[in-house]
Amino acid sequence: MKQKILIVEDEAAISGAIQSILSDEMTEYDFIVAGDGLEAYKLLEKEDFELIISDMKMPKMTGNELLTQTLKLKPESTFIMISAFGDIDTAVGCIREGAYDFIEKPIDINRLITSVKNALHREVLKKENRNLQSENSNLKKKVNKKYQMVGDSPALKEIQDIIDKVSLSDARVLITGPNGAGKELVAHAIHAQSDRNRGPMVEVNCAAIPSELIESELFGHMKGSFTGAIKDKQGKFELATGGTIFLDEVGDMSLSAQAKVLRALQEKKVSPVGSDKEIKIDVRVLAATNKDLKKEIEEGKFREDLFHRLSVIEISVPSLNERLDDIPLLIKHFSKIISEEQGTPKKDFSEAAITSLQKLNWTGNIRELRNVVERLMILGENPVEAKDVDSFVKK
After folding, report:
1. Which DSSP symbol is given to 383?
2. May I ask the CATH architecture of the domain 147-318?
3. Percentage of the chain with pLDDT > 90?
4. How far is CA 160 from each of CA 114, 149, 156, 197, 201, rounded to the nearest angstrom?
5. With 0-12 CB in 10 A as exposed, 13-18 as middle and 19+ as buried, what is 291?
6. Residue 318 DSSP label
7. Is 296 exposed, middle or buried (0-12, 13-18, 19+ CB in 10 A)?
């Protein structure tokens, strides 16, 4: 179905001429004519038009009135106003009210065609921008739902404030804290709120990759560069181009790999194992560790220059024991997620059960709490009571 342009003009000869000229120039549009402002407004109440070309002086409803009323009804409407009685004040008034352009009679045909084409092009750009904003918003919601940071404790609010600030830049961030505290959630929140959220978020668990393979994982390798390299492979840095790379447990990286990462950060280039080829990279680097890197530096296990490169901004994630007030919200959050994942009814937790859970020592932090909530949802009553905590949670 063709998009529509509305021509509002009480003189049939003029509206017919405008319709004929523009139809020849823009065959992809349907042109509808209204004989006065009131007729036009009734059409606008029922239909959407890409553009409205309206005379100023008309019976029943003037062009100014039509412009004002329509923009209240449909604020995104685009108007080009025409009049034989135009002057600077009238033109400025129309533009101020929200019209895209103002053209005096007798109409310069070339001027009209140019104005219409420019107005339609602007509409296309506005729609693309709205779609892009919607996609970005949906993407953020999608990412944040999976990696949502839950809680309203002062410690968590402070972290969120820092995330809001650092997400606006490409600054490298070092995230520290104990295992299971949610360091990866912070990394994903930064990526989701950044301008790079349409690019990839590539995670590398440096502790899970053997030291002899970490360089290949990060920078790629060429076929035959070592035993088992049966084909060329892209590294994580290259795969993350345009997005974010998250180096989890960076404190477990070998000194050899640290040197290459430092070079990559300095020169924004990487070289695959077994190749002299240099590949340009455009990535934001986030890193996390549960180790005291300053102590690791003193012991010669971590490069001081790399530490300073990675820690432009430092975020310390507190243990669950430091944010016990967040446990009620976390229980509610995990209960909902687990019931959705497993297709089972959501269970409530009594205040006594929550109080019992808040008294425990959470050495495994958020990760441990999630496992406990899942266990209680499977084995406990509904609602889960303090006796269920005593029976099924061993501390």
Report:
1. S
2. 3-Layer(aba) Sandwich (3.40)
3. 56
4. 49, 9, 6, 17, 19
5. middle
6. P
7. middle
Q: What is the DSSP letter of 158?
A: H
Phi (first) and psi of residue 81, to 5 degrees: -100, 140
Domain 3-128 identical in fold to domain 147-318: yes
Distance CA(351)–CA(248), nearest Å, equals 36
C-alpha span between 335 and 384 (Å, rounded): 11
Query: What CA–CA distance (Å, rounded) separates 175 from 258?
Result: 17
CATH architecture of 321-392: Orthogonal Bundle (1.10)
Nearest to 78 by CA among 98, 105, 62: 98
Quickly tell me which residue has 């994942």 as its tokens.
341
Q: Which of 178, 202, 187 is nearest to 144 (CA)?
A: 187
Cross-strand partners of 247: 204, 287
Q: Counting beta carbons within 10 angstroms of the beta carbon of residue 5, is it exposed (0 to 12), middle (13 to 18) or buried (19 or more)?
A: buried
Q: Where are the domains of the chain?
A: 3-128, 147-318, 321-392
For residue 184, is pLDDT > 70? yes
CB 149 within 8 A of CB 190: no
Please state, in angstroms and rounded to a whole number, the distance separating the CA atoms of residues 142 and 136: 10
Q: What is the pTM of this model?
A: 0.63
Average pLDDT over residues 81-108: 79
pLDDT at residue 112 above 60?
A: yes
Beta-bridge mates of residue 203: 246
In angstroms, the first-to-last Cα distance of the chain is 67
Count, residues in the chain: 395
Cβ count within 10 A of residue 248:
20
Query: Quick one: average pLDDT of 63-74?
Result: 90
Closest CA to 258 of 294, 295, 210, 310: 310
Q: What is the DSSP letter of 247?
A: E
CA atoms of 72 and 206, how far apart (whole Å): 57
Contact 64, 94 (CB under 8 A): yes
User: Which CATH code fits 3-128?
Assistant: 3.40.50.2300
Token duo for residue 173: 């961030």
Q: How far apart are CA 189 and CA 197, in angstroms?
A: 10
SS3 366: helix
CA distance 334 to 10: 65
